[in-house]
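## retry 2 of 3
previous attempt timed out at serialization; input unchanged, resubmitting
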Amino acid sequence: MSRIGFVSLGCPKNLLDTEVMLGHINKAGYDITPEQEEADIIVINTCAFIEDAKKESIDNILDIAWLKENGNLKGIIVTGCLAERYREEIMKEFTEVDCVLGTGSVHSIVKAIEEIEKGNKYQEYGDKNTVELGGDRIITTGDAFAYLKISEGCNNRCTYCSIPNIRGKFRSRPIDDIIKEAKELTEMGIKELIVIGQDTTAYGIDLYGKYELATLLHRLSEETDVKWLRILYCYPDKITPELINEFKTNEKLIKYIDIPIQHISSRILKKMNRRGDGDLVRKVIKELREIDNIAIRSTAIVGFPGETEEEFNELCEFINEAKFDRFGAFPYSREEDTPAYNFENQIDDQIKQDRYDILMREQFYISENQAKNELGKVYSVIYEGYDPILGKHRGRNYKNAPDIDGMIFFDINKKHEIGDFINVKITEYDEEFYDLIGKEV
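## retry succeeded, writing output
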């Protein structure tokens, strides 16, 4: 049988789709290889959220196409967001591609492989609004943590965002289905479950008529052996009193929340079609700060069409006021299938870049002060292995989500297994990346 290789790009939600496809391939009896040069067929699970993501996806397709022309590779399958967003263009532009599967056809990966083995070209674009959520998968994130997708799609219709067109309408998975998967993951030894969806705070509104994220988190902590629960992708307008109370009372729900604000100017937020204005954002951040030791992560977009200098300055002032524990920004990306593409007063690319640089410089000083304040503190750190380059062991405390936040590097006193929790005292910090450095105590 063919040996299958994989390239997975983009966000954790896309990675989870990759894991589901790997599960199907493994069940069908195919060999899976991490070495692209050894693969007969390579699956590229693409991202297409913003321009940089599209470029990365295209570059990977071109790299794999070179292997097909100059190596032993027999077939290329393109899946994911780029495949869904540019259905007609993929095979026209990249003749080396043999198969394209849209986001609604994640479960058809074995059929696609079989068609290539028969020498056929194949395309499938299943209904993204009815595709089965979940499924058996192969965990690729190691023994310490795994992602847990609780919903798919989005109904928010932000004017800059193409996700509803790519991923479809918002759909929640039933609570019992999620609990079942979480039990299986924790029985495998996974210590941290990271709850994801396009909008996790909207969870349950379609199935139960109300926001039920707090209920889900409570049941996950009560009915599974998970040690840490972390949630990403929360919207400010859906942070309910029940969710805030869950943070205060649920010991397994770590005090970390990812809440993309996108801006603070009420006029810009309205143009973005975000729910709630600047006052609501300020109110929610204030309420969250009342939770002891809460770590708040956020993102913002600079250079949105019509953003004035005054509105940008308002955002800078708010960043200094909010002092987010983790913060990232993006220059506005003009996407052709979104309402904002046709907005007047598009901002010059250089101005967008300048504003990005200014905003991140403001955050640089905030992050530096926060790193200094960590010195001498002791944290429970989830162990993720040894870094041979730095010559130290590595892990994360509750303030650090995988891949998007920093790491803690430390020396140990005794041998540990992946997923162990270790008490680490912070002794220094990396002045460039703000990774923390410490020792086991």
